[in-house]
């Protein structure tokens, strides 16, 4: 069976949100399977009860130790993503809480393999 035939067969059995690339590999168009729920960067495990990257894990750990919460300069409407996650600490902390990060979580780390 040729690569082209294999690609056609794989294409027939893919889900609607998947595509087959030139090598015949199936790719998911939506999001990375191990994306950080806060910023979208590559996550490496469950930290503080959420699938996050090392950066958001460290940020949350430092933020919960502060005596005063950070404040947003733009009324709490900042977009938090991989490219600008360091722009507004208040909105990043709010998003951490919104996605379920908790400082009282019993299991603080679970590595994704």
Automatic annotation (TrEMBL):
PROSITE patterns: NUCLEAR_REC_DBD_1 (PS00031), NUCLEAR_REC_DBD_2 (PS51030). It comes from the Eukaryota. Keywords: DNA-binding, Metal-binding, Nucleus, Receptor, Transcription, Transcription regulation, Zinc, Zinc-finger. The gene is Nr1i3. PANTHER family: BILE ACID RECEPTOR-RELATED, NUCLEAR HORMONE RECEPTOR. Gene3D superfamilies: Erythroid Transcription Factor GATA-1, subunit A (3.30.50.10). The keyword Cell division does not apply. Residues 1-28 are annotated as: Disordered. This is Nuclear receptor subfamily 1 group I member 3. It holds the Pfam family zf-C4.
């Amino acid at each position: 069976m040729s690569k082209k035939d294999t690609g056609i067969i794989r294409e027939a059995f893919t889900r609607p949100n998947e595509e087959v690339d030139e090598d015949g590999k199936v790719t998911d168009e939506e999001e990375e399977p191990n994306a950080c729920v806060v910023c979208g960067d590559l996550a490496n495990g469950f930290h503080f009860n959420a699938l996050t990257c090392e950066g958001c894990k460290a940020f949350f750990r430092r933020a919960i130790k502060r005596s005063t919460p950070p404040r947003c300069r733009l009324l709490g409407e900042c977009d938090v993503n991989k490219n600008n996650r360091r722009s507004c600490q208040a909105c990043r902390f709010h998003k951490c809480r919104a996605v379920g990060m908790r400082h009282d979580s019993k299991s603080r780390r679970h590595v994704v393999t």
